[in-house]
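Researcher: Quick test of sequence recovery. Tokens follow.
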């Protein structure tokens, strides 16, 4: 998330390559984790609790893969904007940075909830998600006002809206991880 935020907001040279490499690595890791968890689950040697925990880990891994997919969507839209010789306004970039910051907090909290069983954080994430949804609506309206005032390129309206929508969907996956954490112990205790 931090890498795609830096690519979209700062336009630093080489950021896209770093992001794409990381994104590919995340996809590969998720695929391998899913294959491993599936083998564990299908082995028939897990206790009922371990089977539940394995299913929860698979669910979390699926959400991590979706987060990676949403980041790739953001990258593709951002790349298309640049390829078309366009650029988001500084205000639009700042708006997106705020959305990324919300998502980074949601993601960090969701991972804390999974790794440490922090139920308070998990519950807070579901409440915090509303900030992202409200931001998406408000920022779309703000963009349209900027277009009306000729401060933003009307040709970027769909791209900007799609960026916001992808970030909102990313937040949904963070909430999904937090909700899974609220259902109980996710990390396997192999001594059980």
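Model:
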């Amino acid at each position: 998330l931090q890498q795609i935020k830096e690519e979209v907001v700062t336009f630093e040279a080489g950021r896209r390559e770093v992001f794409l490499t990381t994104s590919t690595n995340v996809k590969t890791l998720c695929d391998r984790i899913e294959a491993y968890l599936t083998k564990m689950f299908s082995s028939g040697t897990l206790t009922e609790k371990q089977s539940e925990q394995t299913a929860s880990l698979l669910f979390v891994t699926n959400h991590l893969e979706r987060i990676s997919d949403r980041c790739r969507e953001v990258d593709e839209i951002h790349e298309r904007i640049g390829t078309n010789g366009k650029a988001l306004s500084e205000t639009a970039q700042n708006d997106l940075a705020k959305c990324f910051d919300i998502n980074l907090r949601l993601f960090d909290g969701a991972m804390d909830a999974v790794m440490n069983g922090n139920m308070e954080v998990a519950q807070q994430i579901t409440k915090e998600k509303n900030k992202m949804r409200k931001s998406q609506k408000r920022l779309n309206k703000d963009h349209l006002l900027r277009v009306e005032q000729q401060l933003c390129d009307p040709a970027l309206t769909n791209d900007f809206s799609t960026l916001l929508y992808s970030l909102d969907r990313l937040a949904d996956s963070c909430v999904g991880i937090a909700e899974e954490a609220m259902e109980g112990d996710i990390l396997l205790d192999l001594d059980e």
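The two ends are 35 Å apart (CA to CA).
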